[in-house]
Target: AAA-ATPase-like domain-containing protein
Amino acid sequence: MKELAIGTSDFRKIRLEDSYYIDKSLFIEELMKGHGQALLFPRPRRFGKTLNMSMLKYFFDIDHAEENRPLFKGLAIENAPAWAHQGKYPVIFLTFKELKCASMEEFIAKFLEYIADYVEGSFSYLEESDGLLRSEKRFIETLLDQKSDQKDLENALKKIGRMLKKHHGIAPILLIDEYDAPIHAAHTHGYLPQMLDFMRNFLSAGFKDNEHLTKGVITGILRVAKENIFSGLNNITTYSILDEDFADKFGITAPEVDQLLLDAGLASSREAVREWYNGYRFGDTEQIYNPWSILSFVNKKGKLIPYWVNTSSNELIKEILPKADKRTQDVLFDLLKEEKVVARIDEFTVFDHLFTGRNETVLGLLLFSGYLTAEQRIDINTYELRIPNKEILSMFRIMLEDHVSAGTAQAGDTELMRSLLEQRGAIFEDELRKYVQTAFSYFDIGQEGNPEKVYHAFMLGLLAHLDKDYHIRSNREVGYGRADLYFYPKDPSNPKAWILEFKKKQIDDEGDLQSLAEEALQQIHSRNYEAEILAHGHTNIMRIGIAFKGKEVVCAF
Model:
């Protein structure tokens, strides 16, 4: 099998080194069929955005047309009508991926250096062009000398595009990759308004009613609201993960994964791979895989572990989840139990709304960032959502564990977890009481909230680190009902197993918590929740009924 170029987003390098390449060249064909002058593609991190943009650069580039033509030998685009566009346009390709700065001043300085290096390497010939005015050549010279001010930088796309059209006689292709990376950094470091102003002016100058533009493509993670960035840019059409067009051009489809696994000699792992890394739905295209995860899996010779979530930046997610309102908490706890939920989402991201904990905003961010997927559309802005796969589920559980374990020892080292795994009931109950008193300071577990989901999610979070060695099942149909939570070792020689059932004491309940815990315990027996565990040969089963009222908790074993 050919070498996997994991982490390489340079199309030319992949093709010259004859690395394994999953053919996405028909992205070009679909792009040139129409779809407007400027297109925005919001996609999660590491779903092939930069590689696709690199491919567009090498395909259209007029300055190296003959040199780049062999890069596409054997790809589908060779036999498509869009092949006529190969090597016909000047291309401006800018990426903001690495422009994450601690201040606006640092950003301007870093961007000035970046664009000066880029123009020198790509368009220095404009200084000698006979078709340009002296003032235009001075603009290029000022850029190269890194003496441009912020206003010059904001107008750079428009002016360079106009010069390229004059020189080549045809309007350029404009590619902007990861446009929102500096915006995330600006939010983190407290200069968001200045960055939004800059990006609004910069993109408007380059894209708005621009006669010096053949086609423009912008990629990023979020679809930032027009009032933040794209005000007045009526010529930009957005194709998000909810749209059918271009749905299979980012990420890897099921047939492509099947071929990859076959080529790698890992075809027998197809079902396990599907559970771990599949599950995304883009538009009407089902079974989209995360490219980074599936390629890493093959590179590691079939090792099923989280890959993407360990490379992604979760800071924004971690920041907004603690601020989630009660509705959002309920939805997240249902998702953690591997349920599907119906909810409204914001299709545009307004940064000012992110930290209000608003349900639609939080869920929209999670969806477009790749932590949820939309199973189907129910109504306008209303979708059936779910966690796509085991990899993302493990991330949610670990983040919950990190939250509820804040200020304490690692969950796996606490007496609470040791007593549970050693099946010492009395000590577990005592430690659970202590833990709930401290770890639940954030969560609202009053009667008006949904404390049963909080307890359930709390235990899921504590068990997150056991995922490598234990099968953890939440809210699964088993026996004659749905067990809240059970887990058992992947090692069949270990006879232990655990079943937990939660009961909330209602305001009008006359019985005490101990009776309610016994009722939960009885439910485990009467509904035969042991069925799957016994079928796997685990006979030393610890059954736990957990009853609670606010922060009061009682167990029955």
